[in-house]
Amino acid sequence: MTRARLTFLIILATCAAAQSAEQTMQITFDAFGIGKPPPGFSTALTGGGGPVAWVVQENPLQPGDGKVLVQTSADATNYRFPLAIVDSFSARDVELRVRFAPMAGKLDRAAGLVWRYRDADNYYVVRANALEGNVVLYKVEGGKRGDLKPTGAGMLAYGVKTAVPSGAWSELGITARGRRFAVSFNGTHLFDVDDATFPNAGKVGLWTKADSVTAFDDLRATSRDETAAVR
After folding, report:
1. Residue 157: C-alpha distances to residues 71, 180, 187 (Å)
2. Which of 30, 109, 149, 231 is most buried (most C-beta within 10 Å)?
3. Contact at 8 Å (CB) between 173 and 164?
């Protein structure tokens, strides 16, 4: 076989080796110490107010049935968004799911999923709110939060109205593909959003607002980023 022919076959093989670099993560909190922040997470805060408080606790809805992560600070500063960011997972195109239970809060009872996180002032978040009864997707850019309208909705739209129970477990999900984001609640697709503010890979994590005391469990993330197997 000639050198030119061999080189051509190697190039073809390299192109064929391009594949989806799937990375899957699932986090439960059963192995972590009670009353402490979970290892492998970094906490942060968008906005003002006092320190955030993310701690592992016994499942408050089913005592004796495992452990969960709870954001326990009840600081009622309105523009205040506590974050718990996974240190070791980063992706651009990603599927995220988490179980959550709003436990308390007079101003808000919110739970959110964060993706393409750069820092505490720049990321996407989708959140469910039990007091407002809706699910809304936002971008936080330069520390300023703004909602992103569902595809096909008018300029006055604000997410989608959805019953979000307090003191009960629900599941929130987001699938990000390029500039397209699909939001789900309890396994049902709610709406899509189109936005290109943050086009690159970033970290993922959890989010609450103001005085929300919210429990989280079973955080799952799957990266759908594509990369070449041979570089």
Report:
1. 29, 18, 22
2. 109
3. no
**Whole domain around residue 26: which residue ranges?**
22-226
User: How much is the pLDDT for 13?
Assistant: 27
pLDDT of residue 63: 84
Whole-model pTM? 0.88
Low-confidence ranges of the chain (pLDDT < 50): 1-20, 228-231
Which pair of tokens denotes residue 159?
Answer: 């997410």
DSSP class of 142: T
The pair of structure tokens assigned to 51 is 């320190």
Mean pLDDT for the chain overall: 89
Cα–Cα distance measured from residue 195 to residue 198, given in angstroms and rounded to the nearest whole number: 8
Q: How many CA atoms lie within 13 A of 61 on its CB side?
A: 19
Confirm if 54 and 200 have CB atoms less than 8 A apart. Answer: no
- Residue 126, SS3? strand
CATH classification at residue 195: 2.60.120.560
Q: In this structure, is residue 231 part of a structural domain?
A: no
Tokens of 104: 């308390």
Token pair for residue 179? 């500039």
